[in-house]
Amino acid sequence: MQKFVLAAIATGLLAVPAMASESSMSCGNAPQAKWMSQDAAKAKLAGMGYDVRRVKVENGCYEIYGMKDGARVQAMMNPATGEIVGNEQGEQ
To answer: In the predicted model, is pLDDT for residue 18 greater than 70?
Structure first.
């Protein structure tokens, strides 16, 4: 049983860096000087039907909080290209 627990912990610890690097890789590695401004990101998202409430930088991405189609949304945006690389939509 002890070996199983240790193996599970080791697997979990190995998975965390992989998830973090996967997230930042999806947003690219462009220097911040090449990023669109947060206001430009908000405008782009507004054109896509989002009502943006907050934008913050997280793991090299813009993390967007707002509403879309009447539901709360948390989206990850590539700050250089404006591409949505992840989206989580919830209930209002």
So the answer is: no
